[in-house]
Design brief:
about 425 residues, binds molybdenum atom, 8 helices, Immunoglobulin-like, disordered N terminus, binds the ligand Nc1nc2c(c(=O)[nH]1)N[C@H]1C(S)=C(S)[C@@H](COP(=O)(O)O)O[C@H]1N2, Sulfite Oxidase, Chain A, domain 2, molybdenum ion binding, five-stranded mixed beta sheet, alpha+beta, 2 domains
């Protein structure tokens, strides 16, 4: 039996429960989240499965929403078909296009996940506004603390390598490998990229804004259009971040791989929340609510929790860290000549730590061999690996890669399903043919 997909740390589950109780007592803010939704999360007796699948999923733009977006160009950079698979308002990176690209994903190749469309913003009139009950002197929305682009660039900068990976990366394998029905964009494994981000520490900006001892949550909000799902506007993309994470390793990034942040990736400034699911890394950030009360938005209630029979009734705690995965730098269905020598390349990564080892099977999972690791394994990023292979028998087969991280997690054969198809972590069977 695979171990259950972890819905976040134990303390995150307790924290969530405490925050929901605070909401019931009138001590939390939940703009744009229905009373019913919150009661459902609170009520242990609620039918979690029905709730999770009946509501819209932000990973899954409806056909009508997508049609408008396509006419308007939801993504600005070129999306050549040899690099990208277009999926509605989003673009998935092809793994075969990463072969030979080095540790960091070139900006041109980096996947794009847009709820609506990339806005073209101007750094000269951009402002980051911080407001809310968690700041000293209680600045309201009408009396915020503001930082301009140059103000941020004048603060001490930090540079760090981190992946941004969608919570739904690998979702399609719940269906193709496990026969499960899940909602959302049918990503294969290309909803991830690794970049060298440069920016300022969110903690520095929060402290300069006058962070109070009472602050518990911060909620960055994007300047892209309001997200409409099932005919209802859920407002601008926003998701609360517990203060502990906000003060730990979160960046307000203005550079990506040494270049100005590209429009599609959040220009002028985005959050980068290392090791967490992609939705935490809000692009085109315009304001941050700093709150002394817990905050809720559709992105930490309806979305980005695990629903379904394998999970707590009413859903899991909000998702935080990413899970563990591996991918080959190969097209699906790649062809190899029997008797020739090849070097197979791939990458593995985990939200829980560095990669400790990777094993590869070139015969559908019967025999496994250790791969050579090509990066010094580090948390928050992937480790590249390779393995020699000389196929001998013509026919169809599968290549499999299985990673173990320094936290002791190994990719299982089966991922525990959830209705919205988040956090797929099982070993992926990569089809190839030998001729
Ligand atoms: N403002 C805003 N921020 C956003 C999103 C969005 O649609 N709007 N999408 C989120 C999701 S779901 C993911 S996976 C990442 C994707 O980042 P990328 O497009 O730079 O790859 O951005 C996150 N930040
Ligand atoms: Mo995402």
């Amino acid at each position: 039996m695979p171990s259950p997909a972890q819905p976040g740390d134990r303390h995150e589950t307790d924290y969530d429960r405490r925050r929901l109780r605070q909401w019931l007592a009138g001590e939390a803010k939940a703009d744009g989240v229905s009373r019913r939704r919150l009661l459902t999360l609170l009520a242990a007796a609620a039918t979690a499965t029905a709730v999770g699948s009946a509501l819209g999923n932000p990973e899954n733009a409806s056909a009508a929403e997508t049609a408008v977006g396509v006419a308007d160009r939801t993504i600005l950079k070129p999306l050549p078909p040899e690099w990208f698979i277009e999926r509605g308002t989003n673009a998935e990176t092809r793994w075969e296009a990463l072969r030979g690209t080095g540790h960091h994903t070139p900006n041109e190749l980096f996947f794009v996940r847009n709820h609506t469309a990339t806005p073209v913003l101007d750094a000269t009139d951009w402002r980051l506004r911080l407001w809310g009950s968690g700041l000293r002197g209680t600045p309201g929305e009408d009396r915020p603390v503001e930082f301009g682009y140059d103000d941020l660039r004048a603060l001490p900068s930090v540079t760090r390598t981190a992946f941004v990976e969608c919570a739904g990366n690998g979702r399609s394998f719940y269906t193709t490998q496990q026969g499960e029905t899940v909602t959302g964009t049918a990503w294969t494994l290309g909803a991830i990229g690794v970049a060298r981000w440069r920016g300022v520490r969110l903690s520095d900006v929060l402290r300069r804004a006058g962070l109070s001892y009472h602050a518990v949550d911060v909620q960055p909000r994007g300047l892209d259009a309001e997200y409409v799902s099932g005919g209802e506007s859920l407002g601008r993309v926003r998701r609360p971040l517990p203060l502990a994470k906000a003060l730990d390793d979160v960046l307000l990034a203005y550079e990506m791989n040494g270049e100005r942040l590209p429009h599609d990736h959040g220009y002028p400034v985005r959050l980068v929340v290392p090791s967490w699911i992609g939705i935490a890394s809000i692009k085109w950030v315009g304001d941050i609510e700093v709150s002394a009360q817990p905050l809720f938005s559709p992105w930490n209630t309806t979305f980005y929790r695990l629903f379904g029979p394998a999970h707590p009734e009413g859903g899991s705690a909000p998702l935080t860290r990413q899970t563990i995965k591996s991918a080959f730098e190969l097209a699906s269905g790649a062809t190899f000549a029997a008797g020739r020598r090849y070097v197979l390349h791939g990458r593995s990564w985990s939200g829980a730590g560095a990669i400790a080892r990777v094993e590869v099977s070139a015969d559908g999972g019967a025999a496994w061999r250790p791969a050579r690791l090509h990066d010094h394994p580090r948390a928050d990023t992937w480790t590249r690996w390779s393995l020699d292979w000389r196929p001998d028998t013509p026919g169809a087969t599968h290549l499999l890669a299985r990673a173990t991280d320094t936290a002791g997690r190994t990719q299982p054969d089966l991922a525990v399903p959830n209705t919205q198809g988040y956090l797929f972590n099982a070993v992926v069977r990569h089809p190839v043919s030998v001729v």
